[in-house]
């Protein structure tokens, strides 16, 4: 089934998932924040604290009005701030795009989809609970599987390896491109471009 974001006049809420504070800034779990920071750079603005519980930035991507949001809560409590921000800006779940880390996609790979389960991701679980639906867009940034018997929860709270860091800016940039493509051309077109690579 084809899903598209609200019509050209409708506002879109772009959410990056991560944990707040410098201790977590470079963790794999924080790639959502990294991508949102790149989108903010492209828009040319700064995030400001919002009463909904997130850092927000209003702007435009192409001809689309967007609100960028980074929850100020920890990852597993992201849902409250996202739902609050969505209510404030009157954005339905079908107009929300969430950028998050994904263990089941190889490092640097991207997968875009609408709806689905949380696949063990605590941030998505919190969002689905607070929004009351799974029907929102996800841009899944691959961080790969942990080595050996490392606990996935420990893996995502570690920084990227030295080797991974060499390509990280490139992957973040490409993920930001994919978000812009999803917003501008719709899910199917963006999937055709970014799933093929």
CA(first)-CA(last) distance = 23 Å
Rg from alpha-carbon coordinates:
15 Å
Average pLDDT works out at: 92
Per DSSP, the total helix count is 6
Order of helices and strands: EHEEEHEEHEHHH
Q: Which residue ranges are poorly predicted, with pLDDT under 50 across at least 5 consecutive positions?
A: none
> What percent of residues are in strands?
15-25%
Report the top-level CATH class.
Alpha Beta
Reported for the largest beta sheet, the result is: 7 strands, mixed
Number of strands: 7
**How many domains, in number, for the residues?**
1
Polypeptide structure, described:
The chain is globular. It has a single domain, classed as Rossmann fold. It is α/β, with parallel strands linked by helices. It has a 7-stranded mixed β-sheet with strand order 2-3-4-1-5-7-6. It is an enzyme of class 3 (hydrolase).
In a nutshell, what does this entry contain?
The chain has 197 residues and is of the alpha/beta class. 36% of the residues lie in helices and 21% in strands. The chain has six helices and seven strands.
Topology, please?
Blueprint (H helix, E strand, L loop, with lengths): L11 E5 L14 H13 L4 E2 L4 E8 L2 E8 L7 H10 L7 E7 L7 E5 L7 H10 L5 E6 L9 H5 L5 H24 L1 H8 L3
Parallel strand pairs: 1-4, 1-5, 5-7
Antiparallel strand pairs: 2-3, 3-4, 6-7
Key structural traits:
alpha/beta; seven-stranded mixed beta sheet; 197 residues; 6 helices; Rossmann fold
């Amino acid at each position: 089934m084809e899903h598209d974001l609200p019509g050209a006049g409708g506002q879109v809420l772009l959410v990056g998932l991560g944990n707040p504070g410098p201790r977590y800034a470079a963790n794999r779990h924080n790639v959502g924040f990294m991508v949102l920071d790149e989108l903010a750079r492209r828009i040319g603005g700064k995030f400001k604290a919002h009463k909904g519980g997130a850092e927000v930035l209003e702007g435009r991507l192409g001809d689309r009005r967007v609100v960028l949001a980074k929850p100020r809560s920890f990852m597993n409590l992201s849902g409250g701030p996202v739902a609050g921000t969505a209510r404030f800006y009157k954005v339905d779940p079908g107009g929300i795009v969430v950028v998050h880390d994904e263990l089941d996609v190889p490092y640097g790979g991207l997968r875009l989809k609408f709806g689905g389960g949380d696949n063990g991701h605590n941030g998505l679980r919190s969002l689905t609970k607070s929004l009351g639906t799974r029907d929102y867009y996800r841009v899944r940034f691959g961080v790969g599987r942990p080595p050996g018997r490392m606990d996935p929860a420990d893996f995502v709270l570690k920084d990227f390896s030295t080797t991974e860091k060499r390509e990280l800016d490139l992957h973040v940039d490409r993920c930001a491109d994919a978000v812009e493509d999803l917003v501008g051309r719709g899910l199917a077109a963006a999937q055709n471009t970014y799933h093929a690579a």
